Amino acid sequence: MQRIEETVKPYDQNFTTMVPTGFVKFMRTCLIWQFIRFIAINIKMIIVVGKSH
């Protein structure tokens, strides 16, 4: 059985990084969307903490 280090070839075509699309870049930098996500995460946290008490 071969070890994984022997079969993986670095800098091969399969090891390219994902490039974000224009929409993804916009969503990452949009302050309105970030605020909405902040509120949603806080609501989820309140629910989880509320269930434990």
User: Overall pLDDT, averaged?
Assistant: 85
Name the overall outline: flat
Give the ordered list of helices and strands: HHH
Q: Kindly name the structural category.
A: mainly alpha
How large is the share of residues in beta strands?
under 5%
Q: Taking Cα atoms only, what radius of gyration do you get, to the nearest Å?
A: 20 Å
Terminal Cα span: 51 Å
Major pleated sheet: none
Query: Low-confidence parts lasting 5 or more residues at pLDDT below 50?
Result: none
Count of DSSP helices?
Answer: 3
Number of β-strand runs: 0
Question: Could you please describe the fold and organization of this structure?
Answer:
- The protein has 53 residues and is mainly alpha-helical.
- The chain has a domain at 22-51.
- The chain is built from 3 helices and no strands.
- It has helices at 4-7, 22-29, 31-52.
- The longest helix has 22 residues, at 31-52.
- The chain is flat.
- The termini are far apart.
